[in-house]
Write a structure and sequence with these properties.
Blueprint (H helix, E strand, L loop, with lengths): L1 H4 L10 H28 L6 H7 L3 H7 L6 H22 L18
Helix pairs in contact: 2-3, 2-5, 3-5, 4-5
Length: about 110
């Protein structure tokens, strides 16, 4: 995933490190919720655990639910994918503009 690959290069952006930590944190929480929802749905027949996955992936979860896809596992996978997409969008929006080439801090090596 681009977020993880670019964590080291996040200093190239004005808010790069903070944005990367927020996006990775969101993705981690979303994956933990998805795993717990998946286990809960496998163990019990009737559960409202899926509401948590819907809530944490909002607003992209609305798009998934309105899409003409079959329910069950396909919807679960689509919600997880929507959450990961949302983490990537968070990183892209929050990182800010790219710093100019002379803006690297003292002692920082610019990678290219």
């Amino acid at each position: 995933m681009e977020i993880v690959r670019n964590l080291g290069r996040s200093v190239d952006f004005r808010n790069g490190r903070v944005a990367a930590w927020i996006a990775v944190g969101y993705a981690a929480v979303m994956l933990i919720v998805a795993a717990s929802v998946g286990v809960t749905l496998l163990v019990t027949e009737d559960s409202f655990a899926g509401v948590w996955l819907f809530a944490i992936t909002f607003p992209l979860s609305i798009v998934v639910l309105l899409a003409p896809i079959p329910g069950g596992l396909v919807t679960f996978v689509a919600l997880v994918a929507a959450g990961l997409l949302q983490a990537w969008i968070l990183w892209r929006v929050l990182r800010g503009p790219r710093r100019s080439s002379g803006a690297a801090g003292v002692g920082e090596e610019r990678g290219g």
